[in-house]
Every structure is written in structure tokens, then in C-alpha cells.
């Protein structure tokens, strides 16, 4: 009997475009998980976890990495590595770390956050530079800048390499750290052809996710220097992230890295097809670069909830981000036939 993921790919059930986190492990990934060599990772004795951490660190040209259960935990560990309690982090107003992580930077790290206007991937480094606060006069000093690659609420936009290099210059000129929330950095790598190691050398810390576009069931990693990752291991334990025989999950991540990175180009192409289908109705919020299709319903009779309800009735699941904003996300479990079904349904709904 086919598993749930196989049935979804075969066209049974709804076309789930809410997120790329909804994927189920493939048969090959399940086999890798079932045969994984394991040990107690709190003691540092899980060989599959150790191998995954070494592999990811090498991909980004850093000394070390740490496996964490979630992307939010990986981000929050990284932020505590670069911003002391009571000091300041700069990021954009739509960044995941200040939008979807429930105030964790303040709650866990005592970190003060200040944001620039939400512009997705179109960051102006001069604006960021102008926000930096130095030590003195009892002002909260800036200690780090964080960016998101690709940008979730920015419609999967890819921050250009030239922009990242300028932000690195801003950080260096001011003695700041630069962090990357790289949950979907794999998509940026495939879309723009920038080597992962090129991204890695620009950042002091990165978090990278295995359970979004790469299709693993669980897991993200913090990437940085050996010294930082030693501290990160302590912070992970403090936050309840110490795991035991977790090699069964690390094996899924290693399989994803080996088999699911280059195929992201297919997801990007499917997103472009969806964008082409909805564009005539004036709801495409931004050009589609990767696997996210952002929808702006400000000028459409339907609001986001109405669109989602109508789409669900047609067998298509859509993510609601706000009263007039919605999102479609392509992924491993949505094949070409499912994209055709979704495009036809959304076209009917939007033109009604």
C-alpha cells in the first residue's frame, strides 16, 4: 500500500499549498531513517548526528554545526551567540525571528529588537547602516544584524549577493555580527547559483532548515565557529533541545541533502506556473523567484479567508497571512498534475 506522501503525489486528496513544511518522508528517506546508526546525542555519541553536523558545517565553510529540533530554536540559539542580553538586534519588520517566533529573542535571550521597514529581499544597506547605535550615553547598543534568505513574507525573494556583501561591510565597519535565518537558503542557492560556501563566508552564524523545501520531517542546524557551537550546545540544552537517539531524524536530513537540493528547481518552476495562472487577476504581490507565490487581494472582491475557503471547497489548501494576503507554496509532495488542478481551481475562483 502506498504511503500518504505517495498517495498525495498520485493525485488523491487535497493539493496542499499552505507550506513546504507539510511534506511526508519519501520511501528512500524512510529507509535511511529505519537503518540509521544511533547513539545518545546529549553525550555526543550519535554518529549520524555527528556526520550531519560535519557535512552542513563544511557546506557553508564553517568549523562546526549543531542539530536542533526546530528552526525557531536554531535561530534563537544563534541570536544568543551574537547579542548579549539587553543589547540590540537589527532586522526587517517582517522577519521570521520577530514575526513567527513568539517574542523568543526577548523572552529567552533578553534581546532588544529594532526593525527597518519591511521590504522583503530588497534591503538598502545604507538604511541599515544608519540605524546602528554605538555604545555610550545609555542607548541600547547594536550588536548584530539579521537577514532572512529566502524571505518568507517577502514572497520567497532572494537577497542579492551584492546586497549581502554590503551588509557584511556594514557589520565589519561597526563591529557587529551578521546572522542569516537561512531556512530556505537552499532555494536561494538553486535560484541564483550562489555556492553555499559563498553564503557561509558572509555570516558569523546561520540557521538552516531541513524540514521545509528539503522534505525532512524535523530539524534545523546552527552553523558557526567551533567556539560558538560549543556554547550553542549549552544553550540548546537550556532550551530543552537536548535529544537522545536522534540519528533517525538526522538520517532524514542527510538523505534530503543528498537527494532533494537540486530538485528545488522543479518547485520553482511549479511556483512560476501558479504565478502565471493567477497574474491576470491582479493578485500577484511580487515576482516569483523561488517556491512561494505571494498573493495580495487588496484590489480583489475576495479577501484572504474567502479565497482560502473557496479554494478548500475545490480541493486546494491555501495559507492565509493577513486579511488581504495569502500564499501558495510548492514542494516535494505537489507534482505537475496537482499544480494543474490548483491552477484551474484558483483561476475559476479568482475570475468569478
From TrEMBL:
A GO molecular-function descriptor: L-allo-threonine aldolase activity
Obligatory cofactor(s): pyridoxal 5'-phosphate
Keyword Lyase belongs to the record: yes
The protein's name in its UniProt record: L-threonine aldolase
Family stated for the protein in its record: Belongs to the threonine aldolase family.
Organism: Micromonospora coxensis
Matching Pfam families: Beta_elim_lyase
InterPro entries registered for this protein in UniProt: ArAA_b-elim_lyase/Thr_aldolase, Low_specificity_L-TA-like, PyrdxlP-dep_Trfase, PyrdxlP-dep_Trfase_major, PyrdxlP-dep_Trfase_small
Record bears the keyword Lyase: yes
Modified residues (N6-(pyridoxal phosphate)lysine): 212
Keywords associated with the record: Lyase, Pyridoxal phosphate
NCBIfam families tied to this protein: GntG_guanitoxin
Signal peptide range: none
Domain Aromatic amino acid beta-eliminating lyase/threonine aldolase: 16-294
GO CC annotation, single: cytosol
GO biological process, one term: glycine biosynthetic process
Chain segments carrying region Disordered: 1-21
Highest taxon of source: Bacteria
Amino acid at each position: 500500500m502506498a504511503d500518504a506522501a505517495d498517495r498525495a503525489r498520485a493525485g488523491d486528496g487535497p493539493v496542499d499549498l499552505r507550506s513546504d513544511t507539510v511534506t511526508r518522508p519519501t520511501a528512500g528517506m524512510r529507509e535511511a531513517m529505519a537503518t540509521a546508526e544511533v547513539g545518545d546525542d546529549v553525550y555526543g555519541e550519535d554518529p549520524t548526528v555527528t556526520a550531519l553536523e560535519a557535512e552542513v558545517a563544511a557546506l557553508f565553510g564553517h568549523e562546526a554545526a549543531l542539530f536542533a529540533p526546530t528552526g525557531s530554536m536554531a535561530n534563537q540559539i544563534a541570536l544568543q551567540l551574537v547579542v548579549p542580553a539587553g543589547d540590540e538586534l537589527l532586522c526587517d519588520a517582517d522577519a521570521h525571528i520577530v514575526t513567527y517566533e513568539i517574542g523568543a529573542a526577548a523572552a529567552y535571550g533578553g534581546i532588544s529588537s529594532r526593525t527597518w521597514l519591511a521590504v522583503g529581499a530588497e534591503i538598502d544597506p545604507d538604511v541599515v547602516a544608519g540605524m546602528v547605535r554605538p555604545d555610550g550615553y545609555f542607548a541600547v547598543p547594536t550588536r548584530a544584524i539579521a537577514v532572512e534568505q529566502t524571505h518568507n513574507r517577502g514572497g520567497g525573494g532572494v537577497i542579492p549577493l551584492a546586497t549581502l556583501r554590503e551588509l557584511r561591510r556594514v557589520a565589519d565597519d561597526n563591529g557587529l555580527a551578521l546572522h542569516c535565518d537561512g531556512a530556505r537558503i537552499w532555494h536561494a542557492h538553486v535560484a541564483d547559483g550562489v555556492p553555499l560556501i559563498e553564503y557561509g563566508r558572509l555570516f558569523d552564524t546561520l540557521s538552516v532548515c531541513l524540514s521545509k523545501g528539503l522534505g525532512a520531517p524535523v530539524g534545523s542546524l546552527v552553523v558557526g565557529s567551533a567556539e560558538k557551537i560549543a556554547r550553542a550546545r549549552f544553550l540548546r540544552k537550556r532550551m530543552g533541545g537536548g535529544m537522545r537517539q536522534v540519528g533517525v531524524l538526522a538520517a532524514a536530513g542527510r538523505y534530503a541533502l543528498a537527494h532533494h537540493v537540486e530538485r528545488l528547481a522543479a518547485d520553482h518552476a511549479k511556483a512560476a506556473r501558479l504565478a502565471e495562472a493567477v497574474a491576470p487577476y491582479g493578485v500577484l504581490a511580487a515576482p516569483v523567484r523561488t517556491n512561494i507565490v505571494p498573493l495580495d487581494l487588496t484590489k480583489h472582491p475576495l479577501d484572504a479567508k474567502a479565497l482560502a475557503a473557496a479554494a478548500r471547497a475545490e480541493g486546494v489548501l491555501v495559507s492565509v497571512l493577513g486579511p488581504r494576503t495569502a500564499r501558495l507554496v510548492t514542494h516535494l509532495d505537489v507534482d505537475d498534475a496537482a499544480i494543474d488542478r490548483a491552477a484551474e481551481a484558483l483561476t475559476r475562483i479568482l475570475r468569478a
